[in-house]
Amino acid sequence: MNMKFIAIAVAAATVSIPVSAATVYQDDNTVFNVGGRAEVRGNISDANKTTTNDSSYKDKSRVRLTVDGKQTYNSDITFVGKYEFELTEKTDGGSDDVAMNTRHLYAGAETSFGDIFYGHQVNAVTYLTDWTDVAETFSGYTNEYNVATADRAKNMLRYATTTSYGLTFQVDGNFNSDSQSDGYGAIVAYELPIGLELGAGYAASDQTHKTDVYILNDTDKSDTYLLAAKYANDGIWLAAMYQGGNISRGLIKDSDFDAVDLYAGYSFGDNTVNMTYNYYSADDITALEIDFIGIEYARYMGNVALFGSYKFNLLDEGEGGDGDNDEDELQLGLRYGF
Known about the structure:
single chain, mainly beta, Porin, 16-stranded antiparallel beta barrel, 2 helices, disordered N terminus
């Protein structure tokens, strides 16, 4: 492959505005693509107020760029690689007002015996959590307290396979994903011909969520059991997930928790309406509590998505202190994908 040609093609793709993901290089064995999104989002909530800023409005706009490629080695092996990063504007007033976040950085192989990847990528259990994490805004909140159940993790080795009979199996290991964070997970799922898919999983990590600054390097095991179901047919998408296990935070060890994530959506023409429910409760850690209902309307027009989402907080005052869990929210957005 001509590396100089690829460099020129990537530069051209990043400064132009393509109408769809662009294949910038292709031959008999190799495909190289560039894509991304530009998304403007505004959030209105009392959760955005601080001691120095009384505004309830917060900009949550972002830009993503993705490059990925595949090279066919033979009929049994195809090598793959992907890199995706996200840019957002900082609000700290510093000279550099752009924050950069790597979302994917991995390579591996797709084989006739299954796929194997290493790097910054989705977890094995993401296959299940994606069933309910479908809304543009208010879904999937219950997955983020454990590095092994979050959408993505660093330094991860993952194996995945799906049979022609509808059986999916994935397993992963996280190797020092972040400071004090190692983990592993596995899922199995089975899809019936009627559009119904059932799954179960387990994930564990050696971590302490938000360790206190005075007890650094103090880690403990957090583990999660998952049960999930999804039904998709004729524009209807229904999904439910239950999670249970234990989590540690600071001086609190092995606190039992329960979590529920529900999604109900209907698509008609270019439109989608959905309702979500997210619930998380740990016995001894009230700051982690989540309890809300989300409603959303989205319109998809080719590469453009226009959406409005509202979150009804169901927590009492003083509960769910992490992030925006204890406040109502309105979020509006417009996304152009390329």
